[in-house]
Specification:
single chain; mainly alpha
């Protein structure tokens, strides 16, 4: 009984092993490998191009921040000065001027209009 069971087990595992071995030993042809390499080169070129575009956009953004950063900080100081002269929170208006500089300018104009 044990011998028959072992024979069946060996046949099943042996058959599965030969099926796996024959499936893994199939080698791709040279033309398939060349096509795969060409596709990979194409993907690399497109990724390099996208990375170069991203670098360009980042450098443009850095230049915009450098050119506009001083104006925003000066506007925030103006908001703080205005708040000090009108008895409002200096730090609060400075932070508002830094973060919401355009909206803060509108608020300053509205508050100044209502005051007169």
């Amino acid at each position: 009984m044990k011998g028959k069971f072992l024979a069946v087990v060996f046949l099943l595992f042996g058959w599965q092993y030969t099926a796996l071995a024959s499936a893994t030993t199939t080698q791709p042809s040279l033309s398939e490998l060349e096509q795969t390499v060409n596709r990979l080169y194409s993907k690399i070129r497109s990724l390099e191009s996208a990375q170069a575009d991203t670098d360009t956009e980042v450098s443009k953004l850095q230049e915009a921040i450098k050119s506009n950063g001083l104006a925003v900080v000066l506007f925030a100081f103006f908001c703080a000065w205005w708040a000090k002269t009108t008895g409002r929170s200096v730090l609060g208006w400075f932070l508002l001027g830094l973060i919401f500089h355009v909206l803060t300018a509108i608020a300053l104009l509205i508050k100044t209009e209502h005051r007169e």
